Amino acid sequence: MSDALFEFLCRMGDNTLVLGHRISEWCGVAPVLEEDIALANTALDLIGQTQLWLGLAGEVEDKGRDADRLAFHRDVWDFRNLLLVEQPNGDFGRTMMRQFLFDGWHLAQLKGLMGSDNDQIAAIAEKSVKEVTYHHERATDTVIGLGDGTEESHKRMQAALDRLYPYVGEMFISDAVDEEMVSAGIAPDPASLRPGYDAMLDAVLTEATLQKPADDFAHKGGKSGARHTEHLGHMLTQMQWLQRAYPDATW
Amino acid sequence: MSSPESSPYSDTDAAPHGKARATEWPLWEIFIRGQHGLSHRHVGSLHAADAESAIKNARDVYTRRNEGVSIWAVPASAIAASSPEEKGALYEPANDKVYRHPTFFDIPDEVGAM
Amino acid sequence: MYAQMIKSTGEGVKSLDDMEPDERAFQERINAGGKIEPKDWMPEGYRKNLIRQIGQHAHSEIVGQLPEGNWITRAPTLERKAILLAKVQDEAGHGLYLYCAAETLGVTRDQLTRDLLSGKMKYSSIFNYPTLTWADMGAVGWLVDGAAIMNQVPLQRTSYGPYARAMVRICKEESFHQRQGFDIMMKMAKGTEAQRKMAQDALNRFWYPSLMMFGPSDAESVHSAQSMAWKIKMNSNDELRQKFVDQTAPQAEYLGLTIPDENLKFNEETGHYEFSEPDWDEFFDVLKGNGPCNTERLEDRNRAWNEGRWVREGLLAHAEKKRKTAIAAE
Fold this sequence. Notes:
The complex is a heterotrimer.
Chain A: H1 2-24, H2 33-61, H3 67-72, H4 83-86, H5 92-113, H6 119-147, H7 151-164, H8 176-183, H9 194-207, H10 230-239, H11 241-245
Chain B: E1 27-33, E2 41-47, H1 51-63, E3 70-75
Antiparallel strand pairs in B: 1-2, 1-3
Chain C: H1 21-31, H2 44-69, H3 78-103, H4 109-117, H5 135-155, H6 161-189, H7 193-212, H8 222-229, H9 237-255, E1 265-267, E2 272-274, H10 280-290, H11 294-329
Antiparallel strand pairs in C: 1-2
């Protein structure tokens, strides 16, 4: 049980860690000051959530690893984030499309976790859900605004959706870890979140005048850790560099 | 007066300007009510494409996730303002921009951070 | 820092007797500690100087995001990452407040931005220096923000209302910036041998550029005299530089780090530190565009602006469509 729970908590924490890192790459170079500030807020929320999820993961594991140890001293194959969140930022449109696609799932997942039998998980979810509700609203507005905006912005948003849609399916695949979480009353079944997500997606894409790709093919291997994309390793070389180069130092 | 074409700034020798683009987001004045029940207070300005995003931007810029606040966003161009006491002939700079100054409404310090 | 680089276009300070009634009333209001507000009469030189000063100040905040942003993705712990990100985000906010203050003078943010991107308007030269190690995050916070605060605190009393109010907000938010930098320096200076070396190296590289932030000596300048009469500049460059050295030297000692100046010593008689002048040739080179990172900084800002254009236009176009639909529905 504690193995599966640790695995589950790493999934939650690695998603927010990796996406928070990606979003923070925008700091200082966003299209307009107001967006720069807003993106930093999203990244700050996600980093904060990471501290909670990975902190709890370390407690559950009980091997003396704290959130920083887990974030900065694991290699690619130990990461359990969705492939979607490790995708590079691309242009601002792709970044916001990735955010929107993730937030929709993230919000549903956190709402489910608020009713978790595990009090610590329920508490983290309750704190996070407020933040993520706002992330989702903001990303939704942006996807609609840019999808429906100019010819160029529409084209770019459609390209972003086409590029990222193959990473949507992984969010709803259930595996042995999920089954254990469901039977222990800890987390919702990922597959159960799909209908609500699809309805949300269809409504937003319609308003954004964007076409959902017909092919439902889903890349997988992120949340299981079986096969990440090449992008994650490069991100880690940057993120973990100081900790790795000076292992005896504290910061 | 915020349109670049009519701005007197383009005449300065300090920094000559090219032709302005018409794509700058409009300016909004932001008013926020804190948790203590006092009136909305002017906190500053920002740019946004429309009212909804003005409110969202205000949340990100001026409240930094403070819960329980209420935000008003008003187009800067919609604010009517009184004239200053000396109505000297020469106030062409920013003739209609008095509304832009950051604490149009005075609220006592005891109100705390909003 | 930022006001210290400004040269005003004034022709020396007029006496009250030489002024027309409007200008005299304006100057008397300033002398009495009153505020000038956007709709008030103001001399054209005052307005132009303010636009330039506030604009450069705003640009400095925005370009200043880059050297620190350079380390956000390499911050060594989650907490350090969050703190640094929050700090750099504050700088974006400060730029935003300042652009808004400048906008009350009849200029738009886009106009000012274009002048930054084309190189017509300047920003503080300090941001043309590279950040090479994590200790630089400490040094920038401790020294660069420390120097900036020296200038920004008195600007809260500047004569132009919107600028003064922006500075009040900025100073309030900025209070943690220097502390976080010093905190990093403490950790480094008391850490491993490698960390201590990194900290000393950062101090070596940032010491003189920080002294340059106050600008060259302005004792003789009539321009400064005019800006000070208008209360858009509150202290002389030398005065602030001295204050900065007096404050910083004991802090370096506390850290066990050596300020790279063999002439630095405390003068018991004056109660101040004596110190070497920075290399002003280097300062003017950087100002002219030949600093280590001038090219990269402007490239980054230009790229961000150009690549963001479709986003700004797209969201505006959508807002316009919505507005038209709403009108049609009425």
